[in-house]
Amino acid sequence: MAKAYWISAYRKIKDADKLAAYAKLAGPAITAGGGTFLARGMPAKTYEAGLAERTVLIEFPSVEAAVATHDSPAYKEALDALGDGAERDMRIVEGAE
């Protein structure tokens, strides 16, 4: 079974306090679902049409584990805390293994 990668790009952070509340809840929800944070923060360098925006990369054992984590009650609580505090582009991609 191929690993999966959850990729979030923060297009705009509107409320840092809401983002902090989200992060406090999201981290434990994601790790409980089998996620491992591989990278998070601003890009060191962008190329081509790349945007300088906060990006988070999380590895999961499978697409199913990533989707189940996203759809879990614990992660929903984190999303509720975030509310309209940020505009994000989030996707789950299957690994190339």
Structure description:
By secondary structure, the chain is an alpha+beta fold. It has helices at residues 16-32, 63-70, 73-82; strands at 4-13, 36-41, 55-60, 86-94. It has a single domain, classed as Alpha-Beta Plaits, CATH 3.30.70.100. The protein has a four-stranded antiparallel sheet. The termini are close together. Pfam families: DUF1330 (PF07045). InterPro entries: Dimeric_a/b-barrel, DUF1330.
Report a brief summary of the structure.
The chain is an alpha+beta fold and 97 residues long. Helices cover 36% and strands 32% of the residues.
By DSSP, the count of extended strands is 4
Estimate what percentage of residues fall within beta strands.
25-35%
Distance between the termini: 8 Å
**What is the correct CATH architecture?**
2-Layer Sandwich
Main sheet: strands, sense, barrel: 4 strands, antiparallel
Radius of gyration: 13 Å
Q: What average pLDDT do the residues reach? A: 96
The unreliable regions are none
What do we call the CATH topology? Answer: Alpha-Beta Plaits
Helix % is 25-40%
Spatial order of the strands forming the largest sheet:
2-3-1-4
Class of secondary structure makeup: alpha+beta
| Continuous helix count | 3
Q: How many domain modules?
A: 1
CATH class division: Alpha Beta
Give the overall silhouette. Answer: flat
What is the H-and-E element order?
EHEEHHE
Pfam family, one: DUF1330
